[in-house]
């Protein structure tokens, strides 16, 4: 497994975090017919709305930048409570996907949850290729809507 590290988000990370967010929407937005200026405006609006929502709803969550070989490659936002670990966001920049970084972080969260005997839960975009990653890590779909799937990994679930 690659050495994946986390460091707390700082105010100077906003351009990186916006880039990570934009990478998560790029495929979807490519099919809208919007011009580049419209895409940028949409990304800015949605990034700020998401940022505000996470910090208002989960003020005690851990907001981290994912680092590999001293290079930022994504973001990992996790809220912990006595009865669950909730992954708010785990996004790797497009150029770094498929290298096992997300799997390494999920394995670490699984170990933590197993020790605490609590589930790990995450909402995943219903059309995302990330669904397969979570399934390979022992997550099961427990709720589904048109846009999102709630996935859960119970303590001791095999990877």
Structure, described:
The protein is an alpha+beta fold and 159 residues long. The relative contact order is 0.13. It has helices spanning 14-29, 36-57, 101-116, 130-136, and strands at 5-8, 62-68, 71-80, 85-92, 120-125, 140-144, 148-153. It has a single domain, classed as 3-Layer(aba) Sandwich (Aminopeptidase). Strand 4 (85-92), helix 3 and strand 5 (120-125) form a beta-alpha-beta unit. The protein has four helices and seven strands, in the order E-H-H-E-E-E-H-E-H-E-E.
Annotation keywords:
159 residues, alpha+beta, Aminopeptidase
CATH topology: Aminopeptidase
Q: How would you sum up the major sheet?
A: 7 strands, mixed
Helix proportion of residues, in percent?
A: 25-40%
The SS-based structural class is alpha+beta
**SS strand fraction:** 25-35%
Instruction: Give me the number of helical elements.
Output: 4
Q: What coarse outline follows from CA principal-axis ratios?
A: globular
DSSP, total strands: 7
Query: What topology, given as strand order, has the largest sheet?
Result: 1-2-3-4-5-7-6
Rg on CA atoms, Å: 16 Å
CATH superfamily: Gcn5-related N-acetyltransferase (GNAT)
List the helices and strands in order.
EHHEEEHEHEE
Residue ranges: pLDDT <50 for 5 or more in a row? none
How would you state the average pLDDT, rounded? 90
Q: In the CATH hierarchy, what is the class?
A: Alpha Beta
Distance between the termini: 14 Å
């Amino acid at each position: 497994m690659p050495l994946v590290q986390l460091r707390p988000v700082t105010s100077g990370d906003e351009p990186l975090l916006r880039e990570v967010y934009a990478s998560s929407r790029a495929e979807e937005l490519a099919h809208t017919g919007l011009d580049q200026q419209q895409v940028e405006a949409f990304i800015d609006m949605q990034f700020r709305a998401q940022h505000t929502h996470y910090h208002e709803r989960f003020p005690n969550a851990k907001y981290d930048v994912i680092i590999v070989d001293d290079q930022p490659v994504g973001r990992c936002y996790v809220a912990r409570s006595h009865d669950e670990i909730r992954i708010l966001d785990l996004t790797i920049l497009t150029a770094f996907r498929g290298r096992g970084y997300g799997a390494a972080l999920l394995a670490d969260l699984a170990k933590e949850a197993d020790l605490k005997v609590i589930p790990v839960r995450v909402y995943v975009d219903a059309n995302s290729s990330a669904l397969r990653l979570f399934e390979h890590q022992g997550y099961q779909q427990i709720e589904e809507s048109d846009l999102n799937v709630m996935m859960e990994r119970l303590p001791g679930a095999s990877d």
